[in-house]
Amino acid sequence: MAAQFNSALTILRRKQVEARTGLSRSTIYAKLRCNPKRPSDYDPTFPKPVSVGAKAVGWIEAEIDAWLTAQIEKSRKAA
User: What is the chain's Cα-based Rg?
Assistant: First the structure.
């Protein structure tokens, strides 16, 4: 069965993701790849970017919002 997508998807560009999450460019990309020298930076739950052009990527707004909600819940449980 083919995946169904919301017809009103919004793609956020990197600067918008930075503003929404409060993360820097380097931190966003560090969350996306596993680095043996800094394993704590990698976050497999961070949304993966989607290609929007030959040299352009963006993130699905709903996925960023869901990740932020999960981070808030995780923070509240730890407190």
Answer: 14
